[in-house]
Specification:
CATH class: Alpha Beta
Number of helices: 4
CATH architecture: 2-Layer Sandwich
Largest sheet: 6 strands, antiparallel
Helix content: 25-40%
Distance between the termini: 30 Å
CATH superfamily: 7,8-Dihydro-6-hydroxymethylpterin-pyrophosphokinase HPPK
Strand content: 25-35%
Order of helices and strands: EHEEEHEEEHHE
Structural class: alpha+beta
Radius of gyration: 14 Å
Number of domains: 1
Length: 160
């Protein structure tokens, strides 16, 4: 069995309910969720003239290969009403693969580990909460260290 870390988030509609639905579908389609972080309210990154996001990290056990996991995740986003209108724009749900085992994978459609995670506090705060000692296979630092070194200064506040 494989272990994947996912980050889910969104800033449109009932944000808490959207995260709940997303977790339920991930568990049904991708595999059981072994651990979930608190929900963090985060300032928008990249495009700041929009509502705050709710974000949460999930540790998922999956039999799916990385590319099939991505395919299922994109299907879940679409099922929940996600449409890609503008880069970094508002969204009902976003699901990113942060890690997949300790694999390093670079494909046109998928890069693992997520190439920008260490620069985004909204990723690092929930990841450090559920996997503080997890070591990034390329950067050779754990999630706590990467959070401490994260250059992003946007607000990330634990909501639940």
């Amino acid at each position: 069995m494989n272990h994947a870390y996912l980050l889910i988030g969104g800033n449109i509609g009932d944000r808490i309910e959207n995260l709940r639905k997303t977790r339920a579908i991930i568990a049904a389609v991708c595999g059981p969720i072994l651990l979930e972080s608190s929900i963090f309210e985060t300032s928008p990154w990249g495009k700041t003239d929009q509502a705050d996001f709710l974000n949460q990290a999930l540790w998922v056990e999956t039999a799916l290969a990385p590319t099939l996991l991505l395919e299922k995740i994109l299907g879940i986003e679409q099922e929940l009403g996600r449409f890609r209108a503008e880069k970094f724009g508002p969204r009902i749900i976003d699901i990113d693969i942060i890690f997949y085992n300790d694999e390093v994978l670079v494909l046109p459609s998928l890069t693992i580990p997520h190439p920008h995670m260490q620069n985004r506090r909204f990723v690092m705060a929930p990841m450090a909460e559920i996997a503080p000692g997890l070591v990034h296979p390329l950067l050779r630092k754990n999630m706590t260290e990467l959070l401490e070194e994260c250059p992003d200064t946007l607000a990330v506040d634990k909501k639940t």
